[in-house]
């Protein structure tokens, strides 16, 4: 049991949700200046 | 109501006045039809992210789905996983950038317009517009009802006055200010929502003795799960239901997949990509969007489940036993009123109002422009007229208010899942092909769109018990709530309709590509 939650599926869900939110931050920072210009990609 | 009525009234009125001022600023910047329809294609990344998130998250996610978590437990966190992974990362990175590029290249101004231009087919534009005009008012009415119920309780005015007054306030800035006003107000409303939900999470865990103590208490309550839910497969509030059980099917197929995937092809969200100046704006928006969604749905589902601990410790009851008339939509408001300090009750109520208004304004705008640009005015000179689109928005607002008066209560979460499921089934495969195929095939798109929409409606009307009971058609014609038994009656229409519409578009697109390739050989030779 971790943080009072016994089911690994629930813990995995929380881990993935937080991990994906962090991934959004990392993606935004790494690509901060990419895609400039009206037709940039 | 737990707080002083005068304080609440004053703060709500201040909030509404501030919203109108921000809407007015948007109106001042709206000079052309492109400003009105796609915010001039130059929105700031933070505005895009907060507007996308605030439109995405309505009172449904906080109240409706928070109540579902109080009833069914923390398993709903998997919806947050999809909300971020699919609704933000996949939506912005895979779909958003291509949508912006194609939308700008083809000068598309609405989602149906994009479909029509990519496929070179007026049929695709009109049918996409019709699906929006027919499907979206139900979801809009559900959001409208939620906001009106709050205003009635807060300001003490009648339900009818609340409903009409609420619609008029949102209508003013949507009709006059178009998408710029909608996105400006969305961004401010999103910031209010972020503050409210962050404080709610921290305050709840502090109230219940910390993270581990609160979660452990909830885990220890597993024997208190009602017998009917245990029979349906529920094992506790901190564990997943039994795999394949009716509750597992409802949680996974309707709540997690239905809403989690459905968000990808919602017209009012897709148009946000077309407001970006460049892909750099979308990259920066992702940074804000992911954490924002985590703090909205993740907090709602966690706090929703933990309300059971609070009610058990204070009243010896689980959450659903405290809900007014058994209506789980009342659990979160009751918890806030009983457990939180007065100032937070006020902040949370404004948070809810902001969540409702940000979603509502975008839905009004999407429906009105679909009516004028894509259906009634398509091919006419007025299609891109700002004045005509303002009239279209007004017509759809009136239609939504009428439907809101006719709809039953306790329908917020169901209406949300229904609309998102319909959008995914009808639009997602053709949207994916539209942005990624070299030569999108019109026949494949038409067949896929119709297959997704028709199969979804048939399954919703006659097979899925939850949806069929809302429509009442199956009961009226056949005298039963579903034409199929378990497990099919618990399976969401999306699970059947989306794969079918995807298979149709893939098979027909490949066939078209093959013909193109075969036809190209002699020419090349």
Keywords:
heterodimer, A: 41 residues, mainly alpha, 0% strand, B: 525 residues, globular
Q: Can you tell me about this structure?
A:
The complex is a heterodimer of chains A (41) and B (525). Chain A has one helix and no strands. Chain A is mostly helical and 41 residues long. Chain A is rod-shaped and about 45 Å long. Chain A starts with 7 loop residues before the first helix and ends in an 11-residue tail after the last helix. The relative contact order of chain A is 0.10. Chain B is mainly α. Helix content of chain B is 79%, strand content 0%. In chain B, helix 13 crosses helix 15 and helix 18 runs parallel beside helix 22.
In short:
Chain A is mainly alpha-helical and 41 residues long. Chain A is built from one helix and no strands. Chain A has one helix at residues 8-30.
Low-confidence stretches of chain A: none
Listing every helix as H and every strand as E from the N terminus to the C terminus, the arrangement of chain B reads HHHHHHHHHHHHHHHHHHHHHH
**Chain oligomer state:** heterodimer
CA(first)-CA(last) distance of chain A: 45 Å
User: Element order, helices and strands of chain A?
Assistant: H
Q: Classify the secondary structure makeup of chain A into a structural class.
A: mainly alpha
Q: Overall pLDDT of chain B, averaged?
A: 86
Count every helix of chain A, treating DSSP H or I runs of 4 or more residues as helices.
Answer: 1
Based on CA atoms alone, the radius of gyration of chain B comes out at 23 Å
On the 0 to 100 scale, the average pLDDT of chain A is: 86
What fraction of the residues of chain A are assigned to beta strands by DSSP?
Answer: under 5%
Please specify the SSE layout and strand pairing.
The complex is a heterodimer of chains A (41) and B (525).
Chain A: H1 8-30
Chain B: H1 5-29, H2 33-38, H3 45-56, H4 59-72, H5 77-106, H6 111-119, H7 122-155, H8 159-207, H9 211-220, H10 227-232, H11 246-262, H12 267-273, H13 279-315, H14 319-322, H15 331-339, H16 342-376, H17 386-406, H18 412-436, H19 442-462, H20 465-471, H21 473-478, H22 493-524
Helix pairs in contact in B: 1-8, 3-8, 3-12, 3-13, 3-16, 4-13, 4-16, 5-11, 5-13, 6-7, 7-8, 7-16, 7-17, 7-18, 7-19, 8-13, 8-16, 8-17, 9-13, 11-18, 12-16, 13-15, 16-17, 18-19, 18-22, 19-20, 19-22
């Amino acid at each position: 049991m971790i943080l009072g939650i016994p089911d690994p599926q629930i813990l995995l869900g929380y881990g993935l949700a937080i991990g994906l939110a962090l991934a959004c931050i990392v993606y935004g920072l790494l690509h901060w200046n990419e895609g400039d210009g009206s037709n940039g990609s | 109501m737990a707080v002083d009525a005068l304080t609440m009234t004053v703060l709500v009125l201040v909030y509404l006045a501030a919203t109108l001022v921000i809407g007015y600023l948007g109106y001042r910047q709206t000079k052309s039809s492109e400003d009105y329809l796609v915010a001039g294609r130059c929105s700031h990344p933070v505005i895009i992210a907060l507007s996308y998130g605030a439109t995405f998250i309505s009172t449904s996610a906080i109240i409706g789905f928070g109540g579902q978590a109080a009833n069914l437990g923390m398993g709903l966190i998997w919806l947050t996983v999809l909300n971020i992974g699919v609704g933000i990362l996949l939506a912005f990175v895979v779909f958003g950038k291509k949508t912006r590029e194609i939308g700008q290249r083809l000068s598309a101004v609405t989602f149906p317009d994009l479909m029509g231009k990519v496929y070179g087919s007026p049929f695709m534009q009109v049918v996409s517009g019709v699906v929006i005009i027919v499907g979206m008012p139900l979801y809009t009415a559900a959001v409208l009802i939620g906001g009106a119920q709050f205003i009635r309780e807060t300001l003490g005015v009648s339900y009818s006055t609340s409903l009409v007054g609420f619609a008029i306030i949102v209508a003013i800035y949507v009709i006059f200010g178009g998408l710029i006003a909608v996105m400006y107000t969305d961004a401010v409303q999103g910031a209010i929502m972020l503050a409210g939900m962050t404080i709610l999470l921290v305050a709840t865990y502090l109230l219940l003795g910390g993270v581990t103590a609160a979660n452990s208490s909830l885990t220890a309550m597993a024997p208190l799960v009602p017998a009917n839910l245990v029979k349906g497969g529920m094992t506790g509030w901190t564990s997943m239901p039994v795999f394949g059980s009716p509750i597992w099917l409802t949680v996974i197929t309707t709540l997690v997949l239905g809403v989690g995937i459905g968000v990808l092809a919602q017209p009012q969200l897709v148009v946000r990509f077309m407001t970006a100046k460049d892909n750099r704006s979308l990259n920066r928006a992702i940074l804000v969007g992911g954490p924002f969604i985590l703090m909205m749905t993740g907090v709602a589902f966690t706090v929703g489940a933990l309300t059971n601990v609070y009610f058990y410790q204070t009243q010896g009851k689980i959450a659903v036993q405290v809900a007014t008339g058994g209506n789980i939509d009342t659990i979160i408001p009751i918890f806030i009123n009983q457990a939180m300090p007065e100032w937070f009750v006020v902040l949370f109520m404004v948070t809810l109002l902001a969540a409702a208004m940000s979603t509502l304004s975008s839905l009004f705008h999407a429906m009105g422009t679909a009516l004028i640009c894509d259906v009634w005015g398509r091919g006419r000179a007025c299609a891109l007229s700002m004045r005509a689109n303002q009239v279209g928005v007004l017509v759809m607002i009136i239609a939504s208010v009428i439907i809101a008066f006719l709809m039953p209560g306790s329908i917020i979460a169901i209406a949300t899942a229904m609309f998102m499921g319909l959008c995914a089934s009808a639009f997602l495969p053709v949207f994916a092909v539209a942005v990624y195929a070299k030569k999108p095939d019109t026949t494949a798109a038409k067949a896929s769109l119709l297959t997704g929409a028709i199969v979804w409606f048939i399954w919703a009307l006659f097979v899925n018990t939850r949806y069929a009971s809302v429509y009442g058609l199956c009961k009226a014609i056949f005298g039963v709530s579903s034409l199929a038994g378990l497990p099919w009656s618990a399976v969401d229409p999306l699970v059947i309709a989306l794969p079918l519409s995807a298979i149709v578009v893939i098979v027909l697109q490949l066939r078209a590509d093959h013909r193109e390739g075969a036809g190209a050989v002699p020419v090349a030779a």
